[in-house]
# Entry
Amino acid sequence: MASFTIACLPGDGVGPEIIAEGVKVLKAAEGLSGAFSLQFENLVAGAKLYRETGEVFPDSVYEACKKADAIFLGAMGLPEVTYPDGTEVQGSIIVRMRKELNLFAGVRPIKLYPGVQSPLRNADKIDLVILRESSEGLFASFQAGAEVYDKVHVDSMVITREGTEKACDWAFKLARQRSGRPSDGKKVVTCVDKSNNFKGMAFWRKIYDEVAAKYPEIGRDYSYVDAINIQLILHPENYDVLVTENIYGDIISDMAGALIGSMGMCPSGDIGYDYGLFQPSHGSAPTLAGKNVVNPVATILSGGMMLDWLGDKRGNAEMKKMAVLIEKSVEDALRAGNLTQDIGGSTGTAAMGDAVVAALRKRCS
# Structure
């Protein structure tokens, strides 16, 4: 039986609650499959640790993440826990891993599931992926911006050929695997930029076109970053895969998360050639911590993404099969009326995890 070590970082706020449900579902999948074993190594990092010890991400924890087969993260950060410069401390964990582990593909699925109400009046089918280049862009200035006598601060957006090529190539490969946009089934990658104003973004679009030429079977599409926010609200069904710079993708994906009912429905993976980090797209929501009300679905779906990635990386078809079944079980649980507070229901955090496990067992019976 294939065995995998998972570096598990519960983090802050609601992080421990949602990671518990993600692990619950993954362990159920492990037991039902019998074809792989997941060993979770619980690690301590985050704002709470920083407040207690002055250290947010110990080197020993980072090294454990590097040695693991995958990284599963709950939520990091507390708004009031900051460095002296005013920035929150959790970036020292997530941004560091994205840069140092070369996690360039920030994959953020945006999908409207049955039983969940979109705030869009005419929403029918929303099923797209936002891929943000996660290692450079404006985040290249993280802890590195210029400061002049506390009078001028400058953060620069960095666009490189290598980083843009890798992100665009990943987007086209992802589109090749998907079923296409809901409106007509056509496989399309939309380039989101601001090339009408910025040279770096014109460079981004040029590289996108060069990569697109290698995938003639996949349609090309273009949008400026301001316009895409309008179009995603008016016609989300017209989009399949969107590829964009780091901060643009961060903002767009949060907005798009609202279209599918809640950020609690938004999983993500920060993926590279050698490492993968999987976490919900939302934050730590400290005001909800300990109340058993937060939505664990994003974390559960992120765990499914982790299984799929590991299955690809290690050639384990059973893991990929269970990843599909986890998503279908989430659909079953939602369709049956198991809805947490954020999506209009009263199901608790632990009960939501239990409902997904029950649906998974039924599908495997």
Notes: The chain has two domains: 1-102+267-365, 119-259. The mean pLDDT is 94.
